Amino acid sequence: MKSQNSPIRYHERMKVAIYCRVSTEEQDADKQEYICKEYCKNNNHEVFRVYKDTISGKEISRPEFNIMLDDMRRYKFRGIVVTKLDRIGRSLKHLLSLFDEFFTKKVEFIAVTQNIDTSTSAGKLQMQIMGAFAEFERNIISERTKEGMRGAKNVGKRGKDKRQRKKRGVLRK
To answer: Which tens digits make up the pLDDT trace of 45-59?
Structure first.
């Protein structure tokens, strides 16, 4: 029987997907796969499938990643394991939309080398903090856009085309 003060954390058995991504053919995703499989073995997780892509992280559409998302939407596993957060995406906007979907589908996310695990309270807190910063960023962008639109209106311009506005059917000069 484990004591309550034990630093070893026991997870219930969970079926997980492992996602590995490298940017170039010269790189090798096998090390990522090994690290993730060791983590799963040590934490009593069953590996459903390993998905591997060789493509830039800035690309939102990636063949194996898309298959993994389809499998997730069909509830074939309950968790996604990666070595680092940047393996699934580099855009904050994209990451947050993914995490929204993970939350909706009740899929946990684990970044092994960064100690991010949304099945724990600390991992959920990390994701909420990221979400708060992203919302702040969205609000700042919105404020700047509205400010820019007010400025454009004051000089008789609209949007990106910068053409003068027509008022009462007459072009103002």
So the answer is: 999 999 999 987 667
Tell me which residues of the chain have a pLDDT lower than 70: 1-11, 57-58, 60, 90, 130-131, 134, 138, 152-173
Question: What one-letter code names the amino acid at 49?
Answer: R
Which residues are identified as catalytic? Answer: 23
Angle at 43 between CA 70 and CA 69, to 5 degrees: 10
**Total-model pTM:** 0.68
Residue 80's identity, in one-letter code, is I
d(CA 65, CA 73): 12
CATH fold for the domain made of 14-130: Rossmann fold (3.40.50)
* Domain chopping of the chain, boundaries: 14-130
